[in-house]
């Protein structure tokens, strides 16, 4: 496995592979890798002959400096996991490599898809995501790139960004990998105390409740999200950032629950912010 810390090292290997007509799959991450990330790697390996993983905690996408400071890092462990998983190249740049004195000079934004969900409650977040992903896309120039559907809004924004900016890259969405109680795997789960981890299991239980409400014919988004909110707030250590039912492509607020919709939530368990989502199939009364 190659480990590139500079653009020159990265591009030398990529150029060799392109000359040999390899198909290159790319998995961008912020590290502290778990099975969810490894699932993206496997998805790439299934359809590409070379897989590149980037590990970079991107300061530009953190609207809360404390969240950035506390983001878990384990480069050594991550490299071992990549090696064992058969990754071909890891790009592990320092901040100065990705942002050589130019941070913030260009802002990409996608107004419609950012109106709700994390776009509303984390101002600047998706601008940071689009900036780093487009920079990485230019540097790695993969044929295909793999993103988790856990970050559904991110996936939709990248899908549209690639079309709008003519990146010749196919975007693949990979279903969310979950712990045995249904909690979505996340690097942030490592920050939960054992008590908070127990509380976090209310999240998958809330999605099961949502499913039952829909099966019982609930059609009003506001009543629906209020019931789900009350369920989560049965624990004093949960604070709700948002619970929203939106159209699964446009991400605009659903006026009713008569067609399929995306239920997406962000909550703080203690100080840790967790997100999750599920597409719910309407009962079509
Ligand atoms: P992150 O390192 O959290 O920025 O995530 C890197 C990529 O892994 C993103 O495309 C995420 O959506 C994806 N990802 C994170 N958690 C999961 C999960 N539990 N299942 C599948 N993909 C995930």
TrEMBL record:
<keyword id="KW-0566">Pantothenate biosynthesis</keyword>
<comment type="subunit">
    <text>Homodimer.</text>
</comment>
<comment type="function">
    <text>Catalyzes the condensation of pantoate with beta-alanine in an ATP-dependent reaction via a pantoyl-adenylate intermediate.</text>
</comment>
<feature type="binding site">
    <location>
        <begin position="30"/>
        <end position="37"/>
    </location>
    <ligand>
        <name>ATP</name>
    </ligand>
</feature>
<dbReference type="GO" id="GO:0005829">
    <property type="term" value="C:cytosol"/>
</dbReference>
<feature type="binding site">
    <location>
        <begin position="185"/>
        <end position="188"/>
    </location>
    <ligand>
        <name>ATP</name>
    </ligand>
</feature>
<dbReference type="InterPro" id="IPR014729">
    <property type="entry name" value="Rossmann-like_a/b/a_fold"/>
</dbReference>
<dbReference type="InterPro" id="IPR042176">
    <property type="entry name" value="Pantoate_ligase_C"/>
</dbReference>
<keyword id="KW-0436">Ligase</keyword>
<dbReference type="GO" id="GO:0015940">
    <property type="term" value="P:pantothenate biosynthetic process"/>
</dbReference>
<comment type="pathway">
    <text>Cofactor biosynthesis; (R)-pantothenate biosynthesis; (R)-pantothenate from (R)-pantoate and beta-alanine: step 1/1.</text>
</comment>
<dbReference type="InterPro" id="IPR003721">
    <property type="entry name" value="Pantoate_ligase"/>
</dbReference>
<dbReference type="Pfam" id="PF02569">
    <property type="entry name" value="Pantoate_ligase"/>
</dbReference>
<dbReference type="GO" id="GO:0005524">
    <property type="term" value="F:ATP binding"/>
</dbReference>
<keyword id="KW-0547">Nucleotide-binding</keyword>
<protein>
    <recommendedName>
        <fullName>Pantothenate synthetase</fullName>
        <ecNumber>6.3.2.1</ecNumber>
    </recommendedName>
</protein>
<keyword id="KW-0067">ATP-binding</keyword>
<feature type="binding site">
    <location>
        <position position="61"/>
    </location>
    <ligand>
        <name>beta-alanine</name>
    </ligand>
</feature>
<dbReference type="GO" id="GO:0004592">
    <property type="term" value="F:pantoate-beta-alanine ligase activity"/>
</dbReference>
<feature type="binding site">
    <location>
        <position position="154"/>
    </location>
    <ligand>
        <name>(R)-pantoate</name>
    </ligand>
</feature>
<feature type="binding site">
    <location>
        <begin position="148"/>
        <end position="151"/>
    </location>
    <ligand>
        <name>ATP</name>
    </ligand>
</feature>
<feature type="active site" description="Proton donor">
    <location>
        <position position="37"/>
    </location>
</feature>
<comment type="similarity">
    <text>Belongs to the pantothenate synthetase family.</text>
</comment>
<keyword id="KW-0963">Cytoplasm</keyword>
<feature type="binding site">
    <location>
        <position position="61"/>
    </location>
    <ligand>
        <name>(R)-pantoate</name>
    </ligand>
</feature>
<feature type="binding site">
    <location>
        <position position="177"/>
    </location>
    <ligand>
        <name>ATP</name>
    </ligand>
</feature>
């Amino acid at each position: 496995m190659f480990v590139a810390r500079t653009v020159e090292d990265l591009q030398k290997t990529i150029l060799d592979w392109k000359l040999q007509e390899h198909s290159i799959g790319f998995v961008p991450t912020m590290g502290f890798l778990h099975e969810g990330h490894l699932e993206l790697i496997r998805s790439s390996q299934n359809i590409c002959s070379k897989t590149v993983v980037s590990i970079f905690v991107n300061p530009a996408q953190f609207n809360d400096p404390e969240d950035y400071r506390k983001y878990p890092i384990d480069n050594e462990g991550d490299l071992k996991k990549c090696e064992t998983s058969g990754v071909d190249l890891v790009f592990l740049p320092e901040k100065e490599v990705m942002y050589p004195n130019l941070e913030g000079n260009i802002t990409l934004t996608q107004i419609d898809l950012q109106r709700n969900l994390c776009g509303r409650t984390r101002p600047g977040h998706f601008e940071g995501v689009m900036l780093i992903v487009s920079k990485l896309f230019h540097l790695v120039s993969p044929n295909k790139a793999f993103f988790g559907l856990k970050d559904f809004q991110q996936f939709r924004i990248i899908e549209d960004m690639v079309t709008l900016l003519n990146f010749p890259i196919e975007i693949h969405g990979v279903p969310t990998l979950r712990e045995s109680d249904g909690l979505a795997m996340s690097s942030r789960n490592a920050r939960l105390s054992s008590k908070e981890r127990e509380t976090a299991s209310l999240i998958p239980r809330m999605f099961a409740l949502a499913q039952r409400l829909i099966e019982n014919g609930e059609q009003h988004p506001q009543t629906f999200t209020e019931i789900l909110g009350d369920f989560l707030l049965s624990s004093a250590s949960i604070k709700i950032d948002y619970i929203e039912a939106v159209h699964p492509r446009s991400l605009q607020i659903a006026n009713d629950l008569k067609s399929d919709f995306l239920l997406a939530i962000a909550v703080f368990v203690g100080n840790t912010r967790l997100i999750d989502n599920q597409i719910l199939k309407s009962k079509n009364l």
